[in-house]
Design brief:
Layout lengths: L12 E6 L8 H11 L6 E6 L9 E5 L6 H10 L5 E6 L2 E3 L5 H13 L4 E3 L8 E2 L4 E3 L13 E4 H7 L6 H11 L6 E4 L6 E3 L1 E2 L2 E2 L1 H9 L13 H17 L4 H16 L6
Parallel strand pairs: 1-2, 1-4, 2-3, 6-10
Antiparallel strand pairs: 4-9, 5-11, 6-9, 7-8, 8-10, 12-13
């Protein structure tokens, strides 16, 4: 537990849940879990969607219109957020345990007092410059410096780094380079939220379905479920990521760029 006695004003922080209309079946689950496990949260809730309405009490639909691309849609939704700071969450990251609201407020206070541009609320990847037991700084040039989920941003900084035409994956890679002009990027050493990651590549992960059922959460089964083979391939990818972490940060970044260029040119899919 942190020890700050001064609580920040929460009027200037919004929670923006990133989604699109194709994932509207997840909206009731996400907000049910959010309200159950973070019932002390007083932040204004926005849903980044396209044209559908969520019809969920307490949620403002920040509609971006027809889906052009991920970055363009997100920028349009951000413009509709009134607050100057945003906590970015994602529609298929369902809370599974109580959020320590006091601890979150103290971290947000730290964000304000230190004039941070960005504070990542998960510890993967870890920050490379230790500040204290709570947070560390992410130096320019770091891989995945702009990892979005979950994170607190100055809204204007996020809008500035976004580039129309990019996917979320491209943003976390190329946006990290663009973020180097901002020095105040930080990350926690310990995850703030305990989540169930529900959907991968548009399909339910079988373990996520099992975990949600244990929490008595009803799930719309119209969405496909990953096959056993697909799960095994994901596990291989996770193992590769762990191996990659053994390399120095600069080497990891070059490897990611090489892999990305091959995928863009479809050299590995011919």
């Amino acid at each position: 537990m942190m020890n700050s006695n001064v609580m920040p004003s929460t009027n200037d922080l919004a929670v923006l849940v990133l989604s699109c209309d194709n994932y509207s079946d997840l909206w009731p689950i996400f907000f049910k879990q959010y309200k159950k496990y973070w019932n002390q949260s007083e932040f204004k809730l926005y849903l980044a969607c396209n044209e559908k309405s969520s019809n969920i009490d307490g949620v403002v639909d920040a509609k971006s219109g027809p889906d052009i691309d991920w970055s363009t849609s997100l920028k349009k939704s951000l413009v509709k957020v009134e607050e100057n700071n945003v906590l970015i969450m994602i529609d298929d990251a369902f809370l599974k345990e109580e959020v320590n609201h006091q601890d979150f407020l103290e971290l947000y206070n730290r964000f304000l007092d230190s004039n941070m541009d960005y504070l990542r609320l998960k510890n993967s990847p870890l920050p490379d410059i230790k500040v204290d037991e709570l947070v560390g700084q992410i130096s320019p040039g770091s891989l995945y410096r702009t990892a979005l989920f979950p994170s607190v941003w100055k809204k204007d900084v996020l809008i500035d780094i976004l580039k129309p035409g990019e996917s979320a994956w491209e943003f976390e890679l190329k946006g990290s380079d663009r973020s180097d002009i901002y020095s105040e990027f930080y990350s926690v050493h310990n995850d703030v939220f305990k989540i169930i990651h529900g959907v991968i590549k548009g399909k339910w992960h079988p373990k996520a379905l099992s975990d949600l059922r244990k929490l008595d959460v009803e799930v719309n089964q119209e969405r496909e479920v990953l096959t056993f083979r697909e799960v095994q391939l994901l596990n291989v990818g996770t193992f590769r990521s762990k191996i990659l972490k053994l390399f120095p940060n600069s080497a990891r970044k070059n490897i990611r760029r090489f892999v990305y260029s091959k995928i863009l040119n479809k050299e590995w899919f011919s």
